[in-house]
Amino acid sequence: MTALVTGATGFLGPRLLRLLDRPVVLTRNPDRARSRIGHLAGRIIAWDPLQGPPGATAFDGVDTVFHLAGESVAEGRWSAAQKQRIRDSRVVGTRHLVQGIAQMSSRPATLVSASAVGYYGNRGEEELTESATPGHDFLAEVCVAWEQEALAARSLGVRVATARTGIVLGSGGGALERMLLPFRLGAGGPLGNGRQWMPWIHVADLARLYIHAATAGIDGPLNAVSPEPLRNLEFTRALGKQLHRPAFMPAPYIGLRVLFGEFARVLFDSQRVIPRVAIESGFVYQYPDIAVALKAILAPAA
Ligand SMILES: NC(=O)c1ccc[n+]([C@@H]2O[C@H](COP(=O)([O-])OP(=O)(O)OC[C@H]3O[C@@H](n4cnc5c(N)ncnc54)[C@H](OP(=O)(O)O)[C@@H]3O)[C@@H](O)[C@H]2O)c1
Questions:
Q1: Read out DSSP for 238-295?
Q2: Which of 78, 181, 230, 267 is in Cβ range 3.0-4.6 Å of 262 for a Cys bridge?
Q3: 225 lines ligand 1 (CB under 6 A)
């Protein structure tokens, strides 16, 4: 596989790069990319997703594109300007990426484009396989538009998989790092009553699943989550147990709303996401179980 990766400098990117053979990297900041992931990358090329298609030589020899770039949804309080950045970096950015592919005479065969479980919105107890309908809130609308831009590459003869990614758990960043402080201080606990379903995946499984999407011929949506969905309360207990800390102090919605603004609502959404396509296409998870996943991430190296 000769790959190209956008958004490679983020949380997932380096884990994916390690499984690839020095792929081409598109980044807004080549100097920063060189210092962060230069040892894992081949050519590093400047590209700002908002400004237009990547340069003509970016896709030379590339057969597989992994598109991860996008403004973080978990930072800040979702001001109107930030919501615009969250949306444009994905919708306009993906449109420009596909325009770049369209300009090539020899095109990549496959595009694996990140999406998110936010596609489904807040769905209570409903089991959500890839055929479920989308939600109607801000993130759902962003994900629908983002996927549509990626799927436009089909008309160019490119196979497109959209990886509806759950909460990615790993060390050195992401959602788990933000949760650790209150737990370590003994003030961890469920979000609200903790009954909401929480779609999660270990970062190592996620990187392997993106590769699987490319190599196993996945076409269309792919729920990129663990095969053992769990409620926020069960996750909270598993995290408290791994950290040997109490975990029964519930975090009320109103408090988190003050801290995180509109983003707080996402933390209380219930999404019982089932990775049917991954399972039926034979993907084998290394970390299907939350206790094993948290131990691998948090236990000090022997
Ligand atoms: N982590 C999760 O829990 C999670 C859950 C669901 C979905 N996802 C999706 O999976 C993808 C990868 O996740 P991640 O956690 O690795 O993402 P990340 O660390 O937040 O960011 C990935 C990269 O996107 C680029 N980027 C950041 N802001 C941008 C902007 N305003 N415009 C254009 N590019 C921008 C940056 O690359 P450069 O600076 O090098 O250009 C950054 O390193 C994202 O699209 C994310 O939405 C992640």
A1: HHHHHHT------B-HHHHHHHHGGGHHHHH---EE--HHHHHTT---S--SHHHHHH
A2: 78
A3: no
Token couple for 162: 């959209």
Share of the chain above pLDDT 70, in %: 99
Ligand 1 contacts CB of residue 114 (under 6 A):
yes
Q: 94 CB contacts (<8 Å, ≥6 apart)?
A: 49, 67, 113, 146, 149, 150
Q: Which pTM was predicted?
A: 0.97
Rounded to the nearest angstrom, the distance between the alpha carbon of 67 and the centre of ligand 1 is 9
CA distance 80 to 19: 37
User: Measured from the CA of 175, which atom of ligand 1 is nearest?
Assistant: 3
State which ligand 1 atom lies nearest to the alpha carbon of 13: 16
Residues 1, 218: Cα–Cα separation, whole Å: 15
Task: Name the least confident of 6-15, 88-97, 186-195, 202-211.
Answer: 186-195
Closest ligand 1 atom to 49 CA: 33
pLDDT of residue 257: 86
| Per-residue model confidence as pLDDT tens digits over 35-48 | 999 999 999 999 99
The fold of the 3-168+199-226+273-285 domain, in CATH, is Rossmann fold (3.40.50)
Nearest CA to ligand 1 atom 38: 27
Question: What are 146's two structure tokens?
Answer: 């983002």
**AA identity, residue 254:** I
Q: Which pLDDT value is given to residue 249?
A: 87
Q: How many CB atoms lie within 10 A of CB 80?
A: 6
Would the CB of 11 count as within 6 Å of ligand 1?
yes
Q: Any idea where the domains of the chain sit in the sequence? A: 3-168+199-226+273-285
Q: What is the DSSP string of 41-90?
A: -S-EEE--TTT-SPPTTTTTT--EEEE-----SSSS---HHHHHHHHHHH
